[in-house]
Amino acid sequence: MKLTTISTLILFPALAPEMAAAYDMDCAVILCLAGGFPGAECQPPFHYMMSRLTRLPPLPPFGPCTFAGPTGAIDTLSLDGPEYAWLSQMRVLWWRSERRTQHDEGLVYTWTLRSCTADNDCNSLTRATMSHRSPPETAQSENEQSLTLPSVGRFIGVEYSTWQRDMMFSGWSRY
User: Fold this and answer.
1) Residue 48: predicted pLDDT
2) 50-59, 114-123, 130-139: which has the highest mean pLDDT?
3) Which listed residue, of 4, 44, 77, 152, carries a Cα 20 to 30 Å from 95's Cα?
């Protein structure tokens, strides 16, 4: 298979963009992420992923990858059945916290914890502006997980469910 693909790319280099675009961009991110974004064909998915993660306001989480292939026939796999209900529990969590000294107020804190679904339906789970108390150490997610909140700064994490309905959390990444 690899030899055929390499031979095809050498003999017909014009087909390379079509082969790289064989999957929708969300699938390309998932496939390339698994290999650490190797090769030139994984650079567009890498840039796409980084632009989604660092954009303000943030974009919703990646959609499910149906591996529709070159035809783009995403409807070949219906995600409406009860066996895919676990996909709806995925949330991207955004934590932002800062601490500063105000001239007349002393030490004050501002923090926000937002939770967004794949449909970009976002909720504020906890928030404070110019508070004299420090941010909470934990917060309850919409999926009823107790999350340990990170320190001062901007962080992102993903809450998701396995197909066995076990709730998981990716941990926090500073951005």
Assistant:
1) 85
2) 130-139
3) 44
**Residues 6 or more apart whose Cβ sits within 8 Å of residue 169:** 141, 145, 147, 157, 158, 159, 160
Q: Identify the three-state secondary structure at position 45.
A: helix
The pTM assigned to this predicted structure is 0.56
DSSP per-residue codes, 143-162: TS-EEE---SEEEEEEEEE-
Question: 146 Cβ partners below 8 Å, 6+ apart?
Answer: 138, 139, 140
Tell me the DSSP string of 58-94. Answer: PPPPPPP-----TT--GGGS---SGGGGGGGG-EEEE
* Identity at 24, one-letter amino acid code: D
Question: CA quadruple 164, 165, 169, 175: dihedral positive or negative?
Answer: positive
- CA angle 126–131–135, rounded 5-degree value: 50
Answer with the residue of higher pLDDT: 22 or 122.
122
Give the H/E segment covering residue 104. none
* pLDDT given for residue 121 in this prediction: 82
